[in-house]
Amino acid sequence: MTTAPVIPAASGTVAIRSEDLCRHYRMGETLIRAVDGISLEVRAGEFVALLGSSGSGKSSVLNLIAGLDRPTSGSVVVQDRDLAKLSREELAKYRLHVVGMVFQSFNLIARMTLAENVELPLRFAEVDRSKRDNLAREALQRVGLRSRLDHRPSELSGGEQQRAALARALINRPKLLLADEPTGNLDSHTGTEIMDMVREFNQQLGMTVVMVTHERALAERYAQRMIFLADGKLIDDRRNMPTAGERIQPA
Amino acid sequence: MKIPDLTELALRNLRESVLRNSLTTIGISVGVASLVAMLSLGTGLQQLFSQRLAKSGLFDTIFVSSRRDLRGMGREEERKGPTPGESRVLDEPARLEIERLPNVQEAYPDIRFVTELRYEDKPHLTMISALPQSAKSNDAFDGMQGGFFSSDAATEVILQKSFAEELLGKTPPLGTPEPAVAELAKPLLGKELTMRYAQRQAAPAPQPPLRPNDSAASDDSIAGTAYSVVSREQRLRIVGVADLDPESMRGPTRARVFLPLKLAESLHVMQPTDLREISRAASDQPVYASISVRIKNPAKVQAVEDAIKKMGFNTFSILDASNSLRQVFRVLYAFLGIFGSLALAVASIGIVNTLVMAILERRREIGIMKAIGASDADVKKLFFAEAGAMGILGGIVGVMLGWAIGQIINFGTNIWLKSQSLPPEHFWAVPLWLVVFSIVFAFLVSLVSGLYPAGRAARLDPVQALRYE
User: What is the pTM of this model?
Assistant: First the structure.
C-alpha cells in the first residue's frame, strides 16, 4: 500500500452528512430509540470520535454510516450516496468499495490464513488472483505482518489480529475507515500501536475516520473532533487538539 | 464472486467440518447408488428381454400373404389398396422385390405341406416346414440335440421332439413326464427317413411318373398354365431333434419336421395354393402362399410393413405385442426410478440439515463477509456451491457404489444360475447416459436442497450476526 495515492484532506468537502437520522426498533412491547434524530456533518479527511456510554447509540450510528443497517427515518449521505435509498445490492457494493471496518473483536475468519482474510474483500470485488496475492502481501507488509501471511488468526496475538483486520479494511482503498472500539480488547500498549496506525492512515492516505469508543482519554489523544451521544441523541460536538505525538505531515 | 473462487471457498468450507460433510455426502452417495442400482437393473432387464425377443424371431418378422388368399385367420381386414381380385400374385419376382426393400434382411417363402414320412417302413403323416439357415440362431432351437442343417440344400431333416417320440413309439401317456430330448435323439441321429411327396411339374415337359398308378393326369392342350403332379420320394438324414413345444405360437414351428429351405424349394412340392393359381395366368415361377420377411432392426418393422402393404399384399407382425411390452418396461422403469429416488430424497433432507447447521455455526462469519462487502448473492452462491459440491461428490461416489453393487449382484446371481446349470446372463447394465444422468441429477437435487439454506444465509442481518460473540 506504500504506493497508494495520497488524497489530500480537502477541508470543506463533506464526507458524511446525516439529517434527523433515526433508528428505532421494537423489543417486545417497548420501542427502543437507538438513534433518535441525529444531524451531523463530517468533512473529508476528518478524524472523528463518537463517544458515549454503552447503549448511547454510538455503535448504531456507526452501523448506519457503514451501510450495515438502514435508518427508520431521516437520511445519511456518504460521498453523495443516500444510503437509505440504495438497494441491498448497492449497499453491498458501497460497503465493499467505500467503507473499511475494524471491530472490537477483530472479526477475522478463523479458518482462513491472514493472507486469505485480507484478500477476501478482493474476492468479492472479483479481482484477479495474481493481483490479489500481491495486494494482500503489500497490505500485510504495511501493518508489519509480512512474515505471518500463512498463519491463522488463532496463532496471533490480539494486537497482530487487529493489525491484520486493519490491513483487510484498507485493501480496497476505501475513503472511509469506521472503527468500532478498535482497542477494546487490547492492552494499552498494543492499543496505542493500533491507534498510531489508524492516525497514520488518516493523515497519509487522507481517509476519513469515524471511531466509536467509550474511552474519552483515547479520543482526546487521537481525534480532531469529539461527538458525544446519550440515549440516541447528540449532546455535544466539540473540536479537539490531538495530544498524541506530532502531527505527521502528508508525504 | 467468480466461479473458481467460489468453488475454492466452498471446498475449503466443506473440508473444515469433514465428518459432518462426509456423512452428508455418503448419504447422497447411497441415494445415487440406489438410483443407479434400480435403473441399471431396469436397463439390464430390458436389454436381456430385447435380446431374447430378437432371438425369438417374433418381433423382427413380417408375414406377407397375397390378398387373394381369402383366409381371414382373424386378421384385420385390409380396407385400403386393391381388392383381393386385383391383388398381386406373391411369386418369386415379388419376393425379390420385397427383399430389396430397405432394412430387410431376408424374405423367404413359407413352404409347408403335409405328407408321409417312412421310418423303419412305418408311415407317419405329418406337417413339414422349411427353414432358412438364419433360423439357426432362433431360440426355438436352444437345447436342440444334434446340429443344424449343414447347408441350405442338404438332404437333412430336423425332427420336433413329439415327432421323435412318435417315430420311436414312445409317446408318453398324458400326465407322465416327457422323456429327455437327449434320450430321444440318441437312437435317431444319423438315421434316414424316406419322404413321399407330390411334385408339381410344368405340363410341357411331363416326366414319366415313378409309379404309374400314382401319376396325375396331364393335359397337353393347356400347356403353360397346366402342370402335372408326380409322386416322388426323397431320402433324408436326421441331423437334429429340437426340444420345442409344438403348440407354441410361431408359424414355422407348428410343423413337426423341418427341411432346409433350398432343398424344400427344389422339390417343387405340390402346395394347396397351387390349386387356386390354376385359374389364373400362371408363370413358370413358383407362387407362394406366404413369405416371411426378416427385418434388420425391429424398430423398422412398421416402415417395412407399410412398404409391403403399398405393394399390394397383406401383412402381419407382432409389432403391437412388442409395443405393449415396451410400455410395460417404461412403467417398470418409472417405478424403479421412483424407488431409487426415494433414498436420494432422504439424502437431500440431509443436505438441508447440514447446511442449516452450517449457517448457525457460521452466523458470525456470514456477518463478517457482509460487513466487508459481500452481497446477498455472494453469500447465496457460496452456500449453493457447497451444496452443489456435495451433490457432485456424492453423485460420483454413488455411481461407483451403484456399479459395484450391480457387479456383486450380477456375480452372485450368475453363481446361482450356474448352480442351476443355466447359462450366465448379464442383466445389469450401467450405460454412460445413466452415469451422466445420475451425477447431474444428484447435483440438481443438492442445488434444490441448498435453495432454502442459501436463501436464509443471504437474508441474515449482519448487525445481528456480529452483535454476539
Answer: 0.67
